[in-house]
Amino acid sequence: LADRCLHADGFAQVIPEHKYRVVELLQSKGLLVGMTGDGVNDAPALKKANVGIAVHDCTDAARSAADIVLLAPGLSTIVDGILTSRAIFQRMRSYALYRITSTVHFLIFFFIITLAFRWQMKAILLIFIAVLNDAATLVISVDNAQISRHPDKWRIGQLISLSVILGCFLTALSFAVFFVARDVFHIPDDAGKQSEDDTKDGRMETIIYLNVSSAPHFTIFSTRLAGFFWENLPSLTFTAAILATQVFAMFISIFGIKNLTTAIGGGWGVSLLAISLAYFVVLDAVKVFVFRMWSFELTVKLWPTRARKERLRHKKERLIVEERVGRNVARVRAVSKAIYAANAFAKAGRRELPR
Question: How far is CA 246 from its chain centroid?
Fold first, then answer.
């Protein structure tokens, strides 16, 4: 009965109990059901539905039973609400993915480099990184969010796994910058030296500051959508805010500020910013690969719990049934088209016969 309700195009001459039953049957199939109504007879179904929507000029009973009340006539408001909610969800997911990624990068890099190499950064520079990043992420609310065609839901395992992967890639970049600056360009790492030490060179601290500030920051251009970054361009305000914060970080690194950063010159400043900008393209490819490879079957292999295995088995069985039904429907349609064509030819032939 639930399958018949799912494939039906509409229902006529129904009573309130029928409406309630239809919503209940659709929910039993694991679907999220929305219901619109304006009268007393719609109130039970509005209350039962996952999203009950009372239309304009509805009765008090429908208004009290519904989750959403439309104040404008027509149903186009529902579409606007869905588009707005999906845009908000995309921005929330973008922020969560970016924030967890940058936190993983920050913690892993400084934890290892502090314990293994006794290298430290000024606390004021760490604060600068946090302030600039937070200032730029505020403009996510005005970004051109890519609205999905299907309902969204939180996939916590996917979100955390991707964040850890991207954070590890960023950590590898920061260590590469550190070792190249120390071993190739012979910049002193000042390991174990305090800020007030007169023998401290200070350039390594500025180099790592600019890398840690810019590399995860440009990643937000990738985390804002599930596909490649060029599929949906960001808004002008969003782009300007991100670039402005990092250009500011680059200038204070190039020219230096007393008791804050040591000047590293334009070569290092521009190179580090360019490397961070190019590296986010690599991270974008990694992100797309993870999104495309991620599936429920993969989560069962990674976390093979009994409940997940049982759910996967039911899912495969349902897919087999749906494929068989689809093939049968295609055959019936083909036979129907053949019969219709045969009848059309027969009628045409009878018309052409002489009387």
Answer: 24
**Nearest partner of 217 among 98, 94, 96, judged by Cα:** 98
The continuous run of DSSP H or E covering 129 comes out as helix 123-137
Whole-number Å distance between alpha carbons of 18 and 23: 9
Beta bridge partners of 208: none
Q: Are strands 34-37 and 68-69 parallel, antiparallel or unpaired?
A: unpaired
List the structure tokens of 100.
């967890």
pTM for this predicted structure = 0.77
User: Which residues, in sequence order, are bridge partners of residue 134?
Assistant: none
Helix (H, G, I), strand (E, B) or coil at 190: coil
Compute the distance between CA of residue 214 and CA of residue 73 in angstroms, rounded to an integer.
Answer: 49
| Residue 174, phi-psi category: left (phi > 0), alpha (psi -120 to 50), beta (remainder) | alpha
Cβ-Cβ contacts under 8 Å for 201 (sequence gap 6 or more):
187, 188, 190, 262
For the segment 127-176, what is each residue's pLDDT rounded down to a tens digit?
Answer: 888 888 777 778 887 888 888 888 778 888 888 988 999 999 999 999 99
